[in-house]
């Protein structure tokens, strides 16, 4: 079986499988599934149709690790980078960067900040003009996350994250990501904002509703998003999600030739929609 690949990606996959072309290295990235209760909903952004990666898809907040995310100056509370390294099955420095990127990207893309003045606290309002100026500076990379936290006397709350999944972009893509998925509850008092930028719209949705929209072809979900929503849909509350036992396995959809046609084989036949020709996949 498998999902048919557009001609361009199919030819590239054939070249890579034959050893005539080397895959693009996958960049470390992190994404966060923000949750809220009554009923259980997830926060989704619809990427701009002009984006080079996953154009038009509904996605969770996230993005690539900034080299500065691994800076040891990042103020930290909760499980240490070494402990996260064990959970994520990677080195301490990489784990530090991934967790920091998860928190930073969530703030950049939703306005939600998983940080507080101390280990047991979290900021309750990030909607002022000064917060917006800092958010834009982080996006522009004129401000590092360590500098941002230090300026506001805050610590990153790594304990507010739960590791959820690990996906690596297929080898034939020209933009590839080695992405860790996390889940987190929307902190009390905070609210998401329509922050624009890479997103054309944002929405809180029940996982089942998002999945139904994908099946009806009124929403475009990449396989990792579809799988994650399917898993979250099995729970009733945030507490159930955060307390569940979770074993992280790496999923790498792979190209294969079937009856002379190139297809993408997705482990466990995960439903989803591949991008139209000319779009990049995940």
UniProtKB/TrEMBL annotation:
The keyword Magnesium applies. Gene3D superfamilies: Nucleoside Triphosphate Pyrophosphohydrolase (3.90.79.10). Keywords: Hydrolase, Magnesium, Manganese, Metal-binding. Residues 25-227 form the Nudix hydrolase domain. It comes from the Bacteria. Its cofactor is Mg(2+); Mn(2+). The keyword Hydrolase applies. Coiled coil: none annotated. PANTHER family: ACYL-COENZYME A DIPHOSPHATASE NUDT19, TESTOSTERONE-REGULATED PROTEIN RP2. This is Nudix hydrolase domain-containing protein. The lineage of its organism: Bacteria, Bacillati, Actinomycetota, Actinomycetes, Streptosporangiales.
């Amino acid at each position: 079986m498998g999902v048919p690949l557009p001609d361009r990606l199919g030819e590239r996959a054939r070249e890579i499988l034959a050893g005539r072309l080397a895959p693009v290295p996958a960049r470390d990235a992190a994404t966060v599934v923000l949750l809220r209760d009554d009923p259980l909903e997830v926060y989704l952004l619809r990427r701009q149709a002009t984006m080079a990666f996953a154009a038009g898809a509904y996605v969770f907040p996230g993005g690539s690790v900034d080299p500065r995310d691994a800076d040891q100056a990042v103020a930290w509370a909760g499980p240490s980078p070494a402990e996260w390294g064990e959970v994520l099955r990677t080195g301490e420095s990489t784990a530090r960067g991934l967790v920091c990127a998860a928190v930073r990207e969530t703030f950049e893309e939703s306005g939600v900040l998983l940080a507080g003045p101390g280990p047991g606290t979290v900021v309750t309002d990030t909607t002022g003009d000064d917060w917006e100026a800092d958010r834009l500076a982080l996006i522009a990379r004129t401000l590092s996350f360590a500098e941002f936290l230090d300026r506001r006397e805050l610590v990153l709350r790594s304990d507010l994250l739960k590791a959820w999944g690990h996906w690596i972009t297929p080898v034939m893509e020209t933009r590839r990501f080695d992405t860790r998925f996390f889940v987190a509850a929307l902190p009390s008092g905070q609210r998401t904002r329509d922050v624009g930028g890479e997103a054309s719209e944002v929405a809180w949705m029940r996982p089942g509703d998002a999945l139904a929209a994908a099946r009806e072809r009124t929403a475009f979900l990449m396989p990792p998003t579809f799988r994650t929503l399917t898993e979250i849909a099995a729970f009733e509350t945030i507490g159930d999600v955060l307390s569940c036992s979770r074993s992280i396995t790496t999923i790498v959809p792979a190209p294969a030739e079937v009856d002379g046609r190139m297809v993408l084989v997705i482990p466990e036949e995960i439903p989803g929609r591949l991008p139209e020709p000319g779009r990049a996949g995940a």
